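During the practical work, I worked with a single protein chain and the tokens that describe its fold, as given directly below.
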Amino acid sequence: MLWILIAVAAGVIQGSFTLPMKYTGKWKWENTWGMWSVWALLILPWVIALATVPHLMGVYRSVPPTALGAAFAVGLCWGVGAITFGMGVHYVGIALGFAIIMGLSVAVGSLVPLFLQPDKLFSPAGLLIIAGVAVMMVGIAIGARAGLLKDKALASAAQGAASTDVELHERLGVH
């Protein structure tokens, strides 16, 4: 039961980690994401590793350099992906960004292993995966279209409000 609660807590944390971006609107994206990067990618992993792995430095010394290099390369790719994910969320918004970016990540993550095993591509399981990804892509397209329509409606409403302010100022003689 404890592991289920931990998994739920991890899901909530993973699903809401961009929430502070909503409240740091006056900050530049680089500042918000920089703070996240320092804490989530540098400080907390070391704190957790040092607190949970006995003789951590000895463990690192016992690992072959090629394995450490491979782990570093994969971690670097993940970090670049995390930064570009943050940029995407910044530019299209949290809700739409999560839907599109995570949906595309799941689609690519589902199809790449399938394409690496061509003998399974047209098996019943492979076809089911392809169908599921196709349905997901339709959902992403619908969500993206809804987001674009919402942005257009908000921009139109803001423009209408601005023109109403100009008219009011003109009537009152305020400049």
